[in-house]
Design brief:
By secondary structure, the protein is mainly α. The protein has six helices and no strands. Helix 3 crosses helix 6 and helix 4 runs antiparallel to helix 6.
């Protein structure tokens, strides 16, 4: 089975998408300054996690697995945990993010770049299911 997406964003794409900023934060629980190598390693791991999550969502969508299926909801849980690298969404903010993936052209384009068309709406619907089931 051919996975969707690419093995990763190249640096130009990361700069264009704003994901280059991943390397400019200090993760929760880290005290003191980090070396450039540590920042790069963390940014690479977070980027790899995103590529894995988005490829899994695309695969579920492309194969017709419903957004409320437990397999999809597990990947959405991974998406939620991935977001927690940056902030901890509550139900309301996760629902707003879900809508933003569809309603904001920049986010829709980024979500569906090299992925099946319609994936942004699929992701939104799966996130809504997750938010109402798991978040407060």
């Amino acid at each position: 089975m051919q996975p969707f997406g690419s093995p990763g964003l190249d640096q130009a794409e990361a700069v264009d998408d704003g994901t280059a900023l991943i390397g400019n934060f200090t993760p929760a629980g880290v005290d003191g300054a980090m070396t450039p190598e540590q920042r790069k390693a963390i940014a690479q791991r977070i980027g790899e996690d995103w590529n894995r999550i988005s490829a899994a969502i695309a695969e579920l969508f492309a194969t017709g697995v419903p957004g409320n299926d437990p397999r999809t909801q597990q990947v959405i849980h991974d998406h939620y945990r991935w977001l927690c690298h940056f902030w901890t969404p509550d139900r309301a903010s996760y629902l707003r993010l879900a809508e933003m993936y569809v309603n904001q052209p920049k986010f829709r384009r980024r979500t569906e770049r090299r992925k099946p068309k319609g994936m942004a709406a699929y992701l939104r619907d799966a996130m809504i299911t997750y938010a109402w089931a798991k978040l407060r």
